[in-house]
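Task card 7
Instruction: Convert sequence to structure tokens.
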Amino acid sequence: MKKKLVLVLLSMIPFLNFAQNDRAIWVNEMVKMADPVLVSLSEGKLKENMPTEQSSFEYGDRSSFAHLEAFGRLMAGMAPWLELGKDSTDEGQLRKKYIELTHKAIRNAVDPESSDYMNFSNGNQPLVDVAFLAQAFIRAPNEMWEPLDDDTKRMVIEAFKKSRTISDIPYNNWLLFAASVEAFMIKFTDDADYVRIEYALQKHMEWYVGDGLYADGKYYHWDYYNSFVIHPMLIDILSVLQGTKYRLKSLNETVLKRAQRYGEILERQISPIGTFPIVGRSTVYRFGVFQALSQLVLLEKLPVKLSEGQVRSGLTAVLKKLQNAKGLYDKNGWLQIGVFGHQPDMAEPYISTGSLYLTSLGFLSLGLPEHHSFWTAAPEDWTSVKIWGGNPSVKRDKYSN
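Output:
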């Protein structure tokens, strides 16, 4: 009996090492991506150092938006990992470094006297990235918000309020950007506009088309905005509302159920070799395509059909595929436009270098500690591997209302 137990334990060792390596791959890729942004901004040199590549000038020069795009989007994805805080482990000490860089970066981004003070109200684009930065604070209140001094907190709130002057808000997923800013205001201030939240929530309930999918305004768009914006912002807004008496907080269960169905769809879209369908707008956001699935992992709300081992294995396969592309970064470590490497013509006219940091949203699962079962579970085949490998036990997909 003892001999059999030893053999079983020994057989597990490769899987445990594999799982640990998976996390190392994720952490290393995230901080590699983050370094140029956070180091530059912490030193007040982001505007000086960051390039602003654009594939087209059809929408004009986007450079005035690029810095808030890069910072807000990066932080929305990194926040759950930072929220784990510092500890004595190698990874904990790495987090300590990036937490400290983040505090300096926040100050420089919102201080009107800083050379890196950002554009929070000129044009309509700043609303988008104030919302992503708001998500970051909501996702990491203990490490991103609470340690800030009162003066920095005041400047953050003043900067966010500037975005309220933006009136040109498209009648689509952009309603959630305005609502996300107000969710931040609920959580950290006593000055929130609930009308913006109600409007966004009510319209998205109307725009639900079934099977885990929301239309983007009047029409459904075949793209990944259900993952880039819609499901995650609905979940985060409603998480804030749970601490209030606001009546629409009751939508939480419905929204989560729909997100779980969408998570199933995303997992099925990971091919056996770690690729995914490139369709619709903004595919140059790369790993951000899987934000909704990664968020379900973070919240420990994966649908019952998906195991932690298969989701981790599938997402890691995607990340490894993406990181091996030549031209992903320029010679100074900044992201370049494309999906698999440098492919400038794949970008919409509204995309510049800063936009690309939305890829960070795929890393939300790093908010679970390294000893969590998501990271230690034995690797498993994800759905497309099972199907195309001829696995007779794989189950059919099923529509959800």
